[in-house]
Amino acid sequence: MILNETSVAEIKEKMVRYPRRKSAILPALTVAYHQVGHLNDDIYDEIASIIDIPAVEIAEAATFYTMFPKHPVGKYLIQVCHNISCALLGADSLVHYLEEKLGIKKGETTPDNVFTLITVECLGSCASAPMMQINDQYYEFLTREKVDAILDELRKQA
Amino acid sequence: MEKKVLFTYIDDPAQVKVETYVGHGGYTAWQKALKQMKPADVIDEVKKSGLRGRGGAGFPAGLKWSFVPKDSPKPRYLICNADESEPGTCKDRVLMEHDPHGVIEGMAIASYAIGSHLCFIYIRGEFGGPIRCMEQAVKEAYAKGYLGKNVFGTGYDLDMIVHTGGGAYICGEETALLNSLEGERGMSRIRPPFPAIEGLYACPTVVNNVETLASVPHIINNGAEWYTSMGTEKSAGTKIFSLSGHVNKPGNYELELGTPLSYLINDLGGGIKDGLKLKAVIPGGSSTPFLLPDQLDTKLDYESIAAAGSMLGSGGVIVLHEKTCIVWVIERLIHFYRHESCGKCTPCREGTGWLEQLISRIERGEGKPGDLEKIESICDNILGRTVCPLGDAAVMPIQSALKLFRDEWQYHIDNKRCLVKSEFAFA
Ligand SMILES: Cc1cc2nc3c(=O)[nH]c(=O)nc-3n(C[C@H](O)[C@H](O)[C@H](O)COP(=O)(O)O)c2cc1C
Ligand code: FES
Fold this sequence. Notes:
- The structure holds two protein chains of two kinds.
- Chain A has helices spanning 5-15, 25-36, 41-51, 55-62, 84-88, 91-102, 144-157, and strands spanning 76-81, 115-120, 132-134, 137-139.
- By secondary structure, chain A is of the alpha+beta class.
- Chain A folds into two domains: 5-64, Orthogonal Bundle (Arc Repressor Mutant, subunit A); 76-157, Glutaredoxin, CATH 3.40.30.
- In chain A, α1 (5-15) runs antiparallel to α2, α2 (25-36) packs across α3 and α3 (41-51) crosses α4.
- Chain A starts with a helix and ends with a helix.
- The model of chain A has no long low-confidence stretch (mean pLDDT 97).
- Chain B folds into three domains: 13-228, Rossmann fold (3-Layer(aba) Sandwich); 238-321, Roll (Ubiquitin-like (UB roll)); 326-415, de novo design (two linked rop proteins), CATH 1.20.1440.230.
- Chain B contains 17 helices and eleven strands.
- In chain B, strands 3-4-2-1-5 form a five-stranded mixed β-sheet.
- In chain B, α2 (28-36) packs parallel to α6 (100-114), α6 (100-114) packs across α9 and α13 packs antiparallel against α14.
- Chain B is globular, with a radius of gyration of 22 Å.
- Chains A and B meet through α2, α4, α5 and α6 of A and β4, β6, β11 and α13 of B.
- The structure holds flavin mononucleotide and FE2/S2 (inorganic) cluster.
């Protein structure tokens, strides 16, 4: 089993609230993503048996939603918004700065598996640009100084 | 002018707590609706208030509610659309994070108006903060008896589910949202049937934006007349504008509808960044046509912006200064729309991909003679020919940019580089 007891309990608790079980797919995927950090076929199988829906239907839904990585990523998934409002305030140079600091290119993971760097579309934080999301947390009005402090802090925790 | 209705307590960090919310007069509208009004009275009041949908299309809220069949034996559902993914828009998040009970109360009243006993708020999955905030607030509302069985002893039951998405812009489109909520891929549905007749689980369903619903308690408390005393004749009330891009003070500002754009950009937004000149404004989220500097006195209401050739949309005002290459802007946007097209219908799926190829090639300095005409023809073949309005959303800014800045596009093709290069550093 990949999903731990807490996750399974959480999925079951959510599931019973919906008039139809299938509606619990996205919530279940979310719970799994928060525990594991990515999704894969084994996870679809486990979710399928919890909510009693064919695994193919879980996979069908899961592969539509880009928020869930489909293969392992670093402990911290850095998602830089490169859409228009952020781009106008330097999102591209923010990405370059992160690439230099982490020694990786966009789309890659650091060799120690701590950081993965990707760009994403608008995160609904346009008036606090430039911004990035790391795992579940937003970091806004970014400056070099702030980025340095954030990365240092996360490295300490890693 | 600036006018705080939704934002009255937005700076009070305690407003997220049910006690504080109630201390500020919260849940009185819910009680009033349930105890003193019939569902039809609620719909009437909201109709009279002139409240229009704040999610983009500006459809009258009360009218939408009245489309739900009164005699249907099926359950009805209310869904609050908190997918907020239109680039330039970041207002619903503020309401959820700073005044979540206002959203809940609005959802409750709207549910009652249409006879729904189970309602949902569909929040984009990336919004960790707002999701936690809404979940906590819903829990508190249940604990206080504002949700659940027999609310205020009236016999009315109402359940509320916080549902989270998976990072797809298209799931903000109401029919795609319904599919997503049913556990399917978030692809749009052909209308009719409209959701009010056959929505979630093929039952009558109303989908409203967060801001629309959050406005409802104020209308029930203070009356339709009070609401229409703000704004213009056809655009009543207040609206939150998300101001982003090249301004000194970006942020979310609540304005009376009909306030001039210049007031938002210059007075509240502190003018254009770095003392540069304004090049253009996208007034209603990334899918709306551009306005030019000589249109700064345009009033921010549905009719005035339409008369100026654009749309109020979601109220995401994106400001571009003179050092912004328009082809670069459009490349960003078409990349986004191509990425977010759900793939259901051919004009949108293939068209956005083709447009991205052509526009990227121009931006890279590899544009060819005839490219602009080809782009125009693809746009014509997308506009109005797709299952949902995502296709239109992708095309409108392109058509507008070609019309207003044609020289700049041509320069790009002829000289294989930008007329003004967009190089934006971050601090
Ligand atoms: C591609 C696309 C994305 C949309 N995204 C959102 C969104 O994130 N939030 C929203 O409230 N409405 C969005 N809408 C509009 C909804 O389809 C719908 O009109 C709206 O939620 C209705 O609520 P309202 O009448 O209160 O505005 C979107 C529409 C389209 C075509
Ligand atoms: S454009 Fe970056 S958060 Fe909206």
